[in-house]
Recover the amino acids of this structure.
């Protein structure tokens, strides 16, 4: 299915069902996430944009990867575990859906549809859906670590902390992901 057709189906489907994540065409499952995307090129670009830095790359090289899916699987598991270490929070049952969208325009359209607000986000985490919506054009390790920081905080506390605390912890994860 072509990318434009798939995105159109996603938006139409989400208008009727209320969820975009179940309408995407392909999936990659890791220990902590299900990544949904509309074609392999988007997944490849996402993987290419996530440069881990020297220390994390060294850890990644110790793991076997034969395909793009294997490499991204290993990267995502490594990033989640690094964010948990940075925050010193190790929630049980941590699992999330990551929806890859081509650009911030699609992320903003999804946000507008779901919340009725116009925003300039390149990514956001929906607490109610346990889903990250992410622009592949704008992603990098810090953006991903920030959103994963929200996941870790969300899964760690039984009672959600105030939004500002949630955001501060996600920013801390973003700033210290390469330490």
């Amino acid at each position: 299915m072509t990318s434009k057709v798939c995105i159109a189906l996603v938006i139409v489907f989400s208008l009727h069902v209320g969820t975009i994540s179940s309408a995407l065409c392909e999936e990659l499952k890791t220990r902590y996430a299900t990544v949904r995307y509309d074609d392999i090129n988007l997944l490849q670009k996402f993987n290419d944009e996530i440069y881990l830095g020297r220390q994390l790359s060294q850890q990644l090289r110790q793991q076997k990867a034969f395909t793009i899916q294997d490499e991204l699987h290993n990267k995502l598991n490594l990033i989640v575990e690094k964010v948990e270490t940075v925050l010193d929070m190790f929630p049980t049952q941590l699992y999330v859906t990551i929806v890859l969208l081509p650009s911030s325009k699609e992320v903003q359209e999804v946000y507008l549809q779901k919340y009725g607000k116009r925003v300039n986000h390149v990514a956001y985490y929906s607490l109610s859906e346990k889903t990250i919506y992410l622009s592949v054009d704008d992603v990098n390790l810090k953006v991903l670590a920030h959103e994963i920081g929200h996941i870790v905080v969300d899964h760690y506390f039984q009672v959600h902390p105030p939004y500002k605390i949630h955001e501060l912890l996600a920013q801390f994860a973003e700033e210290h992901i390469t330490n």
Observations:
- Residues 149 and 173 are 6 Å apart (CA to CA).
- The mean pLDDT is 88.
- Residues 68-87 form the longest helix (20 residues).
- DSSP finds seven helices and five strands in the chain.
